[in-house]
Structure formats: C-alpha cells, structure tokens
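ok so for the tutorial part 2 we go from a plain amino acid sequence to predicted structure tokens. step 1 is just haveing the sequence, like this:
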Amino acid sequence: MLIERESDVATVMKEVEKELNTDKSVSRRNNISLQGTATTTTAARDAEEGEDVAMRAVLLRLIDTAVFTFNLAFLALMEAAARLAAGIMNFTFDSI
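step 2 — the prediction. this is what the tokens look like for a chain of 96 residues:
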C-alpha cells in the first residue's frame, strides 16, 4: 500500500525545483526563443503584481530584441569588412 505524507511530497517538490532552475544560464546552442520564454517566465514568477509582470516581461523581451539586432548588425559589418579586406589583398597594379 502506498502512503503519502505531506512532508514527503514537499521534499520531492523541493528537489524538483532545485533541478528545474530557469535562472541558470543556458548554453548558446539552445534556441533563442526558449531563452526568451525562460526569461519571461522568470520575470512573471519574480514579480508581485500583475502590472509588474507585464512591464518586466515586455522590458526583458525588448532588451533581448535589442541585443539580437546589435549582434546581427555587428555580424553583417564584420562580413562586409572581411570581404573588403579580401578584395584589397587581391588588388594588383596590373589591372590598372
């Protein structure tokens, strides 16, 4: 017969919460949308009032979008600079 006690259930729940900590950093290989979801979930869990939840979630999503946009622009700039540098290195005066 299986007998459940409140203390046993509480202990199991505490162990599960320790293992499923969304505050830990996620590796870069994970999907960005999953990171955004974890960030939004963390903001919702930490806030006390409904308005704070929405405001913090939107702010964190805005920060994620700004960082993504900056990284994309930086990557495009670096690729353009690399192509320009490769073009300059291949330049010869014979083509003039």
